[in-house]
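Appendix C reproduces, verbatim, an entry submitted by the partner laboratory led by Prof. M.T., so that reviewers can inspect both the input and the predicted structure.
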Amino acid sequence: MVGALFLKRELVRRGLVRHYNEYSDDKRLADAEDVARVKKLGLWGGSHKPMAPWDWRKLSKGERDEVR
């Protein structure tokens, strides 16, 4: 389990995945995501505003088409 946590933290730190703070209260992962956001790495690096998967699932088909 320890190795898995390090892998998760590294992926979040590089901006390759999101930290699902609704399901995890791990401050290290939250801090790693904050660093990635500030440094504009991975998901946070483009000119677009990334949408959380849970927000995407709430949209209707028409709304999704507008976002694409």
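The chain has a mean pLDDT of 89. Additional entries are available on request from the coordinating office.
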